[in-house]
């Protein structure tokens, strides 16, 4: 995550130094912003003043995982999904009317926000005269659920949601602050006892409360 923030900060400096057109005051009142990054989505933006812009939007992210990993010299197939679906409202504040720099903050609601992983050995196991297939060994499933939460977020950015011309590009860097996820841990066959570790894993994830925001913003003038 540290590398994401460092790259974002460097890109922000480049935009600030080489895109002076972003800093010009805009008379645009209504715009559309498309976010590409860790929280992709779309927002409608309305200008309240040269310093303040109100935004409302929807973010959606879906990632599928299916790969083999070597864990303790054992080949394990890991399948999973990460889904994020939120609605949100936020405010951009430009401290300087002629500058593209902004700070932003808002609140969102997670309609759906889950990470689900299932792991199963790729190979069987031989114990004495007994050989167990991967299916007989079983599998382990893990789920972290952030759904149904009110989540504040804040950050900084370069670029305006209401461009002076018809289109502009910006960058934002920040984070969501969530509640601790609800954890579900289960297993089949030889992995059935893993369910007994659920409370321990839940406690260990109490501090998993941050979701990074690193987006390129494509802003379009509507009115």
UniProtKB/TrEMBL annotation:
Transmembrane segments: none annotated. The keyword Signal applies. Residues 10-185 form the Outer membrane protein beta-barrel domain. It comes from the Bacteria. Residues 1-23 form the signal peptide. Keywords: Signal. This is Outer membrane protein beta-barrel domain-containing protein. Pfam families: OMP_b-brl.
